[in-house]
Amino acid sequence: PIPHAPAAVRGVINLRGKVIPVMDMRLQFAMEEAEYNERTCIVVVEIATRNATIPTGIVVDSVSEVVNIKGDDITDAPHFGLDVQTDFILGMA
Question: Could you tell me the residue ranges of all domains in the chain?
């Protein structure tokens, strides 16, 4: 843990010379904490803000497959119905 950081921030990693924060979304969403094991992975995502793109590591239970998705394969978010807020879904593949 990092002193004075939220509990969901589990630490940092050095990825190709860049220091990247690592978050456990289970803790962020007040879910039951899971023990890390040999299948636990860190998926690095880029979070876009108004001024920059911030690489962030997200702890996941496991990864079964890694795929490359081309921009042309991403379509607009579908209409899910009235109960799903899609403001933060830019597209789906």
Answer: 9-68
Classified by CATH at the fold level, domain 9-68 comes out as: OB fold (Dihydrolipoamide Acetyltransferase, E2P) (2.40.50)
Percent of the chain with pLDDT over 70: 99
Condensed to tens digits (0 to 9), the pLDDT of residues 76-91 reads 877 777 677 777 778 8
Residues 6+ apart with CB under 8 A from 8: 23, 24, 25, 27, 28
Averaged pLDDT for residues 66-74 = 90
- How long, in residues, is the chain? 93
Q: Is residue 49 helix, strand or coil?
A: coil
Tokens representing 78?
Answer: 């579908």
What is the phi/psi pair of residue 40, to 5°?
A: -65, 135
Angle at 77 (CA atoms; ends 81, 47), nearest 5 degrees: 120
